Amino acid sequence: xxxxxxxxxxxxxSCLSGFIxxxxxxxxxxxxxxxxxxxxxxxxxxxxxxxxxADKKAGNAEILADMIxxxxxxxxxxxxxxxxxxxxxxxxxxxxxxxxxxxxRPELQEIPDMSSYDTVFxxxxxxxxxxxxxxxxxxDKVDLKGKNVxxxxxxxxxxxxxxxxxxxxxxxxxxxxxxxxxRGGSVADDADTKEAVTEFLNELEL
Length: 206
Known about the structure:
The radius of gyration is 18 Å and the shape is globular. Residues about 1-25 have low confidence and may be disordered. Helix 2 crosses helix 6. Strand 4 (about 150-155), helix 5 and strand 5 (about 175) form a beta-alpha-beta unit. The protein has about 210 residues and is of the alpha/beta class. It is built from 6 helices and 6 strands.
């Protein structure tokens, strides 16, 4: 028992001192069943001919979700709408605002079952100051009562907007933790983004 306590103490000191890499000091999710749900426009839009986005492998929210799933051992779920958003970006921006104003709930192809999870990350882009209405559809359809819920938001300068508050209001009986935000232009499948995500995971207190 003494050896176990000593080993944990040495690991804690090493993490603080920077002697061990950030990934080795990641928060312990072994006692949690984690789901990582994400909505990305790339998987929910039409593509025109010669569309420069057509060859893009993953959207920003998906990249972050992949990293979080890897860091937590969580299961990945993508939210996909029945009706695709337009290929024209400006049209999509206008439609997103219309959906928000109307409190619309876009139909999803599938609603992932969250019943077996106690911790749910939700990764999304900031659309008009909050999460897309497709995420609101998901929130309405699943029971997250008593679960840890962590928002993960990409943006172009507005940070979390009001998405943190909106999530707390939508889930009054969930434990909504402070979320992670990052500029969309800074997201890449690289070491810098992984370091930022790992640091965030390290600081979570579940």
